[in-house]
Amino acid sequence: MAAEESPITYQQLSDLEREFEDVETEIISQQVRLTKPLLEKRKAVISQIPRFWPLVLEQAPPDIDEAIQPTDSTVLLSSLTSLDVSHFELEDGGDPRSVAIRFEFAENEYFEDRVIEKKFWYRRSRNNWAGLVSEPVNITWKEGKDLTEGLLGLAKAVWDEEQAERANGAKTKGKAPTEKQKALRAKIDAIGLGGLSFFAWFGYRGERITAEESRIATQEEKDRRQRRASGEEVASPNPDEEDEEDEDDDESLEIFPNGDQLALAISDDLWPSAIKYFVQAQEDDQLSDVDFESDAEIEDASLPPSDDEDERPAKKRRA
Length: 319
Fold this sequence. Notes:
The protein is an alpha+beta fold. Helix content is 46%, strand content 9%. It has a single domain (10-281), classed as Nucleosome assembly protein (Arylsulfatase, C-terminal domain, 2-Layer Sandwich).
């Protein structure tokens, strides 16, 4: 059956959706401002709780837990001392959806860094794409302890090389890949992305959109909506069309394709709900103790009675 014609266009629905997005962005701004004193209070309180953040990570939701490999878990649970999320652009009137995720570590056998911070900028392109972009952050690995098997270092080297070319005004569209790019591509193909270390996430880059490009795209999109609201027919860019400024096949050099989703899971779930996950970890630990004691009592009941209480087997406790 043919679909009934509607007086409402797809573009009108799209514009309405963007109005909702504008309101949601304002809500985020207000929420960040209102919760800032509470988060500072929380930070002071949890700093007195041993292993707070490792216990929170033990209860991490699936989106985060599946990104943490056993060796990653060894590092995070033994040496992570603090985790912090900030909406760094908001202070200068920027987008509150841009976030910086900061990890602090104690001395460990894997890397020298005590602080590793990754920033994600919320950007919009002229072809109507919007989301989080970032740039690779290097980690100073100790000899033979690189959990990314060289991927992160190569991703950072390729990024630095590309930034230097751009600074010199070089055009890379259609240009043959450099030796560093070929090495990174070969390393990705050799290792694969299944079971990749959590620390490869620090190499996520996403779409290549500068702050100026995003500002122009945002203003153009706002102008189009205003003109349509006044009755003018204005078409939006086709999101399937290749952006003229997209000069490289960035996707082929991405070592952690869902890095933006992991960032959102940390900033929008784990970070604000940290106390909930910590309490859940405590409750699970208590339940485990109860279960273990019950098992021990059943085991004791099956033993023959003894006149010497000192010879009775002692109950084991969790460490």
